[in-house]
Amino acid sequence: MNLDTLRDKLAYQPILLGTIALLASGALAAVSNLTGPAIAAAEAKDLRDSLSEVLPAGLADNDFLKDTVELERDGKTITVYRARHGSELKAALFKVAERGYGGEIQILMAVDADGRMLGVRILKHSETPGLGDKIDVRKDDWVLDFNGKSLGDPAPEKWGVKKDNGVFDQFAGATITPRAVVKAVKGGLEFYAARKQDITAGSGS
């Protein structure tokens, strides 16, 4: 094999690989462009469904996914979704989190304009099946006890499980889990009270 032929073969391989890589990246981009909007729409639907679970039916008539404000809490950004009827703010919806027995418990809560709980749902947790998982409304109605509560009802010192002289039930063999949820929800109410002016400001969309 002469030198020219060898040079041709050596040059051919990277060109072929480059062409294949270019075609592959183009195909991936095309698939992404096709599936991206569908994925985004599905995620938006899941979020809207979750938010709607903590709101009484018919309370709001706006698209609260588009009526948001981002606020800082303990160095983290919290997105607050604002539910309105006409121009009147009916509820603020946002996520809070607290560490439970098995890891972080992610919680969605809705607070009315006066700072009273409208609803609480557990979005994600790793608590012990049959014990701590009773925080999930699909397993038990325990989480519904937060409905109607506020920072003044019960009194601040009563925001705890009964084992800690509070008003909320604990689970047999799993006190850490409900204790964490109570702490998170109370913290969420405190956040709303502290940032109420920022949350209620603006006309929304």
SSE layout and pairing:
Elements: H1 3-53, E1 68-73, E2 76-85, E3 88-99, E4 104-112, E5 117-124, H2 176-200
Antiparallel strand pairs: 1-2, 2-3, 3-4, 4-5
Short key terms for the protein model shown above:
globular; 205 residues; five-stranded antiparallel sheet; alpha+beta
Structure description:
By secondary structure, this protein is of the alpha+beta class. It has helices at residues 3-53, 176-200; strands at 68-73, 76-85, 88-99, 104-112, 117-124. The chain has a five-stranded antiparallel sheet, sandwiched between helices. A hairpin with a 2-residue loop joins strand 2 and strand 3. The radius of gyration is 25 Å and the shape is globular. The model has no long low-confidence stretch (mean pLDDT 86).
